[in-house]
# Entry
Amino acid sequence: MDKHKILIVDDDNDLRRALHIRLRSFGYETVFAIDGVSAIAMALKEMPDLILLDLGLPAGDGFVVLERLRKNTKLSCIPVIVLTAREARGNKEKAVAGGCFAFLQKPVDNDDLLATIQKALSGSGALIG
Amino acid sequence: MPTNRRPTRALLVEDNPGDAFLVQEQLSRLGASFDVKSTDHLSAAIEAATSTPPDVVLLDLNLPDSTGTETIRRMIQRVPNVPVLVLTGQDDEDLAVKAMQEGAQDYLVKSDFDRRHLARAIKYAIERQSLLLALHQSRDQQLHLKDQLLSHVSHELRSPLSCIHQFVTILLDGLSGPLNAEQKECLETVLKSAKQLRRMIEDLLETARVEAGKLTLEMRCVAIEDLVGQAMNMLRASATAKGVSLQASQPTPFLVYADPHRVLQILLNLTENAIKFTPRGGRIHIETDSCDEDAHFVVVKVSDTGCGISEQARSLVFERLYQEEGATGSGRKGLGLGLSICKDLIWRMGGKIWVESTLGQGSTFSFTLPVFSLAKLISPAIVENGALRQVNHLLIVKLAPIPTTSAIEAWDKTRRACLELLQRCILPDKDVLLPSMGQVRVGEFFFILAAADAAGTEVLVKRIREQVTRCSEVSANAVLDVTSHLLEFSDDGKGCSLDRQLSGAAAMIGNLIHQTIKKGDSQDGQAQDFDC
# Structure
């Protein structure tokens, strides 16, 4: 497998499309989910290398998705980057405690996004916030 | 007083047995409507009031362990919601006013009241306090609502902004095909505006946070030059792009007592403003020096050769929502919140901020920060009755992470949890949890100056260990090692002034802390030197 596969979980159609174009330009393959329930189903079906997760989602808040991902033995080792429009205060601690690899806030700088994805995929473990 | 209600619980704090008897006697004659407990020390009173809050505190100001209005301040600090009624032997109007300013509900002269007078004063004090509390609660509630609203709105604004940002950068990076120069320029303007909008949303949230009292400061001992350097690095590119030179100078290194993130935020804000208002070819200079008026402060000046600020505007620039006309460049205004946030932050850190300016020649924004002084920090713990306590202990708490793959933020959370835990364990009235004074590569050291003898220190250490086992955030992620060191201040300094003795003690403690950090970080440490 050459290309890393990234699952984008976001209910904003336009942003999903933008992220798809951006990640494709970085050389990644993308798959999508638009809500909490389909996120888990999609992750199981596609077994992505990384998940980009929004927090405000229909049918299951992002934190619920994060918890379910962490509890699922098949999915628990996939790194999750939270990408949200929500405030960092409070949410960041909660997401980190929930086991995400990194917390990024929308609008995200593309250099930051790429650097964080690369770190997550290299499995270095330590997060740079 | 209605008889069908439970008796009013009064805590009488009075060290003169005769006076205490008199007040109790007066109240007991009013029948079963008062339940009076009595104590003769402030520390005991605070302890009693914290465990079972009384309905009212009757407080003498001159006690064995505290005197004057300081007594009120310390009482109210620990039990803020209980009305305090001052009972004193001094018929002193000035003192009475000061007492009320400190938050006392009433001021009664002992020789001058009868029991009905006292009962009425107590009743009104309780009533006023409860009205005040209701007022505060309603204010807090409103601020909370506003905070929620802003948080919600900013979230909703960020989502479409995120889309704009993404698609513009997609076009700009040529991911949808090549652009000509004009198209590129247009899109760069869109991107710049999107970034401005993002900044405004952040300012808006920050302001709401300040007002809701949710803004927390983490005061540390910090080298101001490091922060100036960071700010310069972050802004050099935009200064260069505008054709403005950016330089910094300082005669000697300074250590200040401040929250480094907030100071950086202030430096960025002032310097960004300077860049914004300075035309091409201009100069910006950040200068740090000791404060002429007060040697306990450091002053940081951000000067520019920009358009200057009119006299009329100078008095307004720090007001919320004030906007300066005619910024060079796009001519676009901000929200007018940046400087008001700076002012609030500086004020909270104990400094002040002001501006000097000549129209057409430039402006200088200056702010002060307190110089880090260990002597000042430790004085509540080691000064007793105007002299140094002879026996104190320094507790060294070493927090070492349990190796995991956990994130940097997770460690920060553990560190904070530990800090809170220690804060809970100490007697805030006596012991001092010292701020961070240097970084080690792995883990963190905390230092507590305990105003206690060996037995008291042992109790404190035991309390900390117990709390750690209960706090999973700390115990799951870190190992805590607590050691205590006896500090004996010799009698030699007795002849010297208290200040001299204090700085001697500070030097000794500072040295011990410094050695500990150095030893704990023998591999290439970055422990900071500090003056005491």
About this structure: Residues 21 and 30 of chain A are 9 Å apart (CA to CA).
